[in-house]
Amino acid sequence: MSIANLARRVVRALTPYQSARRIGGKGHVWLNANEAPLAYPFTIEGNRLNRYPECQPAEVVKGYATYAGVNPDQVLVSRGADEAIELLIRTFCEAGEDQILICPPTYGMYAISAETCGVGIVEQPLTPSRQPDWPAIQDRLSDVKLVFLCSPNNPTGDLVGRKGLIKLLEKAQDRAIIVVDEAYIEFCPEASVVDLLARFPNLVVTRTLSKAFALAGIRCGFTLGDPEVIAMLAKVIAPYPIPDPIAQIASQALSSTGLELMQERVLELNKQKAIIKAELTRLPCVQEIFEDKGNFVLVRFKDGAAVFAAMKAAGIILRDFSSKPGLDNSIRITIGYQGEMDAVLAVLRTLPADSATTSPTASNQPAASV
Predict the structure, then answer these.
(1) Contact by Cβ (8 Å): 328, 322
(2) Is residue 221 within 8 Å of 206, Cβ to Cβ?
């Protein structure tokens, strides 16, 4: 028997998540992973490194609870929001029996984590207005334990409609947990649904320091939920998930100074996003510009393959989503600082329009009520 045959069947059949680093590429402008464009210095003390860290570092838990406006017993710290996704599946779904529901096109790790855990997946595609199909999801509540919604959605940038979410939470009480992934919420904080945690114990919100906080490299994420949900997840999480140096950096990022730096970063990136979006509408190679609530913008080009190739030749690495349902010729551009955005526009301005005569449009369709 080969080593591969010793692995679980679901693992043998699994196609791993194609992260930006796994895909790789060669270039000098990296705009494919929705990372912040610059790193910032932090101070780390090494006098505790001989000791195991706290499972849930109190200073980090308290700092994030204060920032998010919840109580400390409503917060779980994990190795990125990716671990939070897997913890939710491992905690609430029986392998070989239960299912989760996702709304593609959306973040790929929901499905990968379910497959890895031997949990089934129900796909309910977004509507033409790129909203969750609320009636269809409600009809499947008896079939699933968890519903994953991404707001702003990666890769389309849309927000989940608040009215539809509230109705779903009401229908799902005592039936399913609704998970809202707010990895990009700092770029539109007014759209957060954290306030609904006080009303709905079946709501869970996941967050991260990877995007607006410019700390993708430390892998630090958060789950916000009812204390009973957090207590269940705490039973499943590894005994020492947060290394002490990571806790030190996270605590500094959540200090008053760290929060001010984050907010300044968000203002600058939102400014750059508005500029590039305005420029994109003028380019003949652009067919459609999607919603822009995160630190990225998804663009449908008339010839996406040609755009991607031209960017690659120029050393600019973007993320191609043309293989995803409804996203043909679509490429996601992470928002960087001005020099990086200027480099992207310089390449796009050299590209001719194809034979299509449709002028580029920004498809900022109102996402119901947000």
Answers:
(1) yes
(2) yes
Structure tokens given for 224: 């916000």
Nearest-angstrom CA–CA distance, 247 and 44 = 10
The answer to whether the peptide bond before residue 105 is cis (omega within 30 degrees of 0) is: yes
- Distance CA(164)–CA(194), nearest Å, equals 15
d(CA 189, CA 211): 13
Q: Using one digit for the tens of pLDDT, what is the confidence trace for 81-103?
A: 999 999 999 999 999 999 999 99
Cβ-proximal residues to 10 (8 Å cutoff; 6+ apart), any chain: 115, 116, 118
Going from the C-alpha of 49 to that of each of 141, 246, 361, 368, the distances in angstroms are: 46, 11, 54, 50
Other Cβ atoms within 10 Å of 99 Cβ, number: 15
How high is the mean pLDDT of the chain? 92
3 state SS of 149: strand
Q: Which of 2-16, 17-31, 123-137, 175-189 has the lowest mean pLDDT?
A: 17-31
- CA 244 → CA 43, 60, 368, distances in Å? 12, 11, 43
Q: What share of the chain is helix, strand, coil (3-state, %, to 5)?
A: 40, 15, 45
pTM, to two decimals: 0.91
Contact 213, 238 (CB under 8 A): no
